[in-house]
């Protein structure tokens, strides 16, 4: 055979071999087969989604993959730690819709995508909210919680409003040095802003998602009704950014300093930094108010439903602290049962559910999104996968209520922490209600102190019971919870009274000190 034709045959042979290799290589089909198991074409639940998630967990295991929505439901804490913490580089993104961009939410840290900009914003938060820095908030926390006790004593029937007021006013006080009550126009504006943000996130706006260029059309253009909501939302967010910031700066001359004012002074003439500082204030308000309120509200209800726990925690406080002062954060380590009550509230009632209603509308939220393909326990977890991390219903029922970890998981039993081998004072990282990995709640030290102090102070001074009707019969509490964005008890009637005259005097005396 001529050398040319032999060379040709050799090359031909190599090419044919390469084609065969390509053809028979393990391909997409095997990826498909190696996705984590899950229901084939499920209808995503809209109400009580945790029931369905838990059921899927029982049927398919720790990881449940919904291929139709490229969504992974994590049913167990150890998987959340493996993926969201150990593989955090991959699983720290968030999804951002066109509507959210239009509303300007790409400046809201909790919703921002994983990027250098997010890192910069988060760094500012971390510097000011890390454990040691959060001591700065103690005075505001003591002041506002004393005010809360007084409000509960004077107008107990409005306990839900007082709880919200505590959560909001604490942020204004600790960050801006402002005393802003529930009725203040700024509070009202901020509440409206939260509602608008919720609307922009929760409602479906398919037109803008499918045709992003519609953002350039006027609001009267057919299908462009979303423009009005987006404009209003952006305007409210700007006002909520600017009003307290300007007040904090003008207070410097007369009423004194504050964290935000000090940071603004340090960064005078640096517009990019000033924008970050303003955003930190606004995001704190948005991220702290409903979550803190929800945790304290869940505690109040749990105490009414579990009078034995209430009495036991009160007895511990009486024994350790006595009756003539309020608990302080320095007392925390001496009150293991109160700590266990706090841990049990956070286990049973994480305030940030992520209902599927939310999910069905193109939506996003606090779930983590993966930025590249990953392989875990032999499964392929595709890029862009939304990890329904646990503040989703899955933590609430499947993680926080995993019977393999917590016996009788639906019972409010602080003893499970008190009697556990490590005791109740474990790391804050064990409180899964604050999330996982690089997106873990950046305000958690502040939140942890506020919720604990509120719990200890209420237990020290107040008795919580069912309300009674005119015949003196106890009024039943259905114990229902909201289940949209934040999860907290629905309105109910209760009886909140000072434990005795001494407690009443102690509460009212705090007003003279403030
Ligand atoms: C009981 C109260 C609170 C609870 C239960 C809570 C819970 C959470 C959760 C579950 C997340 C998402 C974590 C994740 O994606 O893995 C989060 C994020 C966040 N929280 Fe909190 N939070 C609380 C209070 C606060 C407070 C007081 C602040 C600040 C003043 C705050 C600021 C933030 C911010 C800025 C983020 C977004 C972090 C990021 O995406 O990088 N939170 N929180």
TrEMBL record:
GO terms for molecular function: heme binding; iron ion binding; monooxygenase activity; oxidoreductase activity, acting on paired donors, with incorporation or reduction of molecular oxygen. It is a single-pass membrane protein. GO terms for cellular component: membrane. Pathway: Secondary metabolite biosynthesis. Heme binds at residue 441. Gene3D superfamilies: Cytochrome P450. InterPro entries: Cyt_P450, Cyt_P450_CS, Cyt_P450_E_grp-I, Cyt_P450_sf, Cytochrome_P450_fung. Keywords: Glycoprotein, Heme, Iron, Membrane, Metal-binding, Monooxygenase, Oxidoreductase, Transmembrane, Transmembrane helix. Its cofactor is heme. CDD domains: CYP64-like. Belongs to the cytochrome P450 family. This is Cytochrome P450 1. The lineage of its organism: Eukaryota, Fungi, Dikarya, Basidiomycota, Agaricomycotina.
């Amino acid at each position: 055979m001529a050398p040319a034709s032999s060379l040709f045959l050799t090359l031909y042979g190599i090419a044919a071999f390469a084609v065969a290799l390509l053809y028979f290589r393990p391909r997409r089909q095997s990826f498909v087969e190696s996705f984590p198991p899950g229901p084939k074409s499920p209808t995503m639940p809209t109400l009580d989604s945790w029931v369905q998630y838990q059921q899927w967990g029982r049927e398919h295991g720790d990881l449940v993959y919904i291929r139709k929505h490229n969504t992974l439901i994590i049913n167990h804490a150890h998987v959340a730690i493996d993926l969201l913490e150990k593989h955090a580089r991959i699983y720290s993104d968030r999804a951002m819709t066109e509507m959210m961009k239009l509303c300007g939410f790409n400046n809201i840290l909790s919703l921002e995508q994983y990027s250098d900009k997010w890192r910069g914003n988060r760094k500012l938060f971390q510097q000011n909210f890390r454990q040691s820095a959060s001591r700065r908030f103690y005075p505001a926390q003591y002041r506002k919680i004393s005010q809360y006790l007084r409000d509960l004593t004077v107008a107990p029937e409005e306990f839900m409003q007082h709880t919200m007021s505590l959560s909001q006013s604490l942020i204004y006080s600790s960050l801006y040095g402002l005393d802003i009550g529930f009725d203040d126009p700024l509070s009202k504006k901020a509440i409206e802003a939260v509602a608008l943000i919720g609307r922009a996130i929760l409602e479906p706006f398919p037109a803008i998602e499918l045709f992003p260029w519609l953002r350039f059309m006027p609001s009267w253009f057919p299908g462009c009704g979303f423009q009005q909501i987006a404009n209003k939302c952006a305007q409210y967010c700007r006002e909520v950014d600017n009003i307290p910031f300007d007040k904090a700066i003008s207070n410097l001359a007369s009423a004194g300093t504050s964290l935000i004012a000090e940071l603004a002074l340090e960064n005078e003439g640096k517009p990019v930094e000033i924008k970050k500082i303003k955003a930190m204030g606004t995001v704190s308000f948005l991220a702290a108010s409903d979550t803190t309120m929800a945790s304290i509200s869940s505690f109040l209800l749990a105490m009414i439903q579990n009078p034995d726990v209430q009495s036991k925690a009160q007895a511990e406080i009486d024994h350790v602290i006595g009756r003539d002062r309020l608990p302080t954060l320095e007392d925390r380590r001496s009150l293991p049962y109160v700590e266990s009550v706090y841990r049990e509230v956070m286990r049973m009632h994480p305030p940030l559910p992520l209902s599927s209603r939310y999910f069905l509308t193109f939506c996003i939220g606090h779930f983590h999104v993966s930025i590249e393909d990953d392989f875990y326990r032999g499964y392929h977890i595709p890029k862009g996968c939304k990890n329904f991390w646990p503040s989703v219903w899955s933590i609430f029922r499947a993680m926080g209520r995993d019977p393999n970890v917590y016996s009788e998981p639906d019972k409010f039993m602080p003893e499970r922490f008190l009697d556990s081998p490590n005791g109740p004072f474990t790391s804050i990282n064990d409180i899964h209600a604050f999330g996982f990995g690089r997106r873990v709640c950046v305000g958690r030290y502040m939140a942890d102190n506020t919720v604990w102090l509120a719990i200890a102070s209420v237990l020290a001074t107040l008795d919580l019971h069912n309300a009674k009707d005119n015949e003196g019969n106890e009024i039943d509490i259905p114990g229902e919870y909201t289940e949209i964005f934040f999860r907290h008890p629905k309105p109910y009637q209760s009886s909140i009274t000072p434990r005795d005259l001494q407690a009443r005097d102690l509460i009212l005396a705090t007003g003279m000190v403030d």
